[in-house]
Amino acid sequence: MGVNNSSKKYLEDFEIFLKSEKNFSPHTVRAYVADVYTFLIWADEIEVEKIDTKKFSEYLYFIQKINYTKTTVARKIASIRAFYRFLYQEEIIDNNPTDAIVTPKQPKTLPNFMSEDEVENILRNVKIETPAGYRNRVILELLWASGMRISELSGLNYENLNLEQNEIRVFGKGAKERIVLIPNKTKENLINYIENVSDLICKTPKDPSSPLFINYNGYRLQNQSIRKALKEVVEKIELPKKVTPHVFRHSFATKLLEGGADLRIVQELLGHSSIKNTQIYTHVTTSRLKSVYEATHPRA
Fold first, then answer.
1. What does the alpha-carbon distance between residue 292 and residue 281 come to, in Å, rounded to a whole number?
2. Which of 154, 171, 166, 163 lies closest to 211 in space, CA to CA?
């Protein structure tokens, strides 16, 4: 089994397209390319132009037999569909064989989130006696205060900051730019990190294009380091739920909606392209209201 040379070339062009024109993150590009490559290996030397809807249906049946989750199957289909849309747009194929395929319905799951007390418990237990510990505390506080994705936060440069206005300019999925807001206390801690702590981690120039959060070698702090720091605190306080940086984002959105924020405003702050992605949090808040009602009302 293998991939013929023409298909490899198309896949390379598709990868360039995802990076340069769609501005997808490196992680997303790798996932798309891997999904398509796996499909092409399964197709076993068949040229992409000759793969029809019947063949694609056979592959769908094949991956469903492997006991992938519905979410994984849906992602693989989405990746291959994107590849064939690209081939169609480039006029490499005359029709898209994936158009007639129905994606398996995914189960609706509510996003995991934390209460305000749980977030504050995490923040209190970050050891800020060391420069790196203080940096980590500021990072987690920023995630909670702004709803940023971890990749958006780690990608911040000094030029993204407008602290006089309590604003930070971030670049989300597809390099879409938006402004997030931070409260005064978070701003004060961030300024203290910049002026007094970052040089204790590593003395580097604070040029506009320099990374905001750095490691002891002066390089940009990576997502994995942030995840590790968070995991250590969560394990220390024995919080009985899985907490990732993205859970801070869920918690941010949930807290805003519970406080009466307009759904469109939350959509803008999160950088969601569609209001549908934000509406899931209304289900979270409704579900929480119901649980409180059932636990406290005498006739519930």
1. 17
2. 154
Comparing 36-45, 64-73, 128-137, 142-151, the range with the smallest average pLDDT is 64-73
Q: What is the pTM of this model?
A: 0.69
User: Is the separation of the CB atoms in 93 and 84 below 8 Å?
Assistant: yes
Residue 168 CA to residue 295 CA, distance in Å, equals: 40
* Domains parsed from the chain with CATH numbers: 5-89 (1.10.150.130), 116-251 (1.10.443.10)
Report the half-sphere exposure of 129 (CA within 13 A, side-chain side): 2
Whole-angstrom distance, CA of residue 98 vs CA of residue 85: 9
Tens digit of each residue's pLDDT (9 = 90 or more) over 19-68:
888 878 888 899 999 999 999 999 887 888 888 888 888 888 888 888 78
H or E element, residue 169: strand 167-171
Catalogue the active-site residues. 149, 173, 246, 249, 272, 281
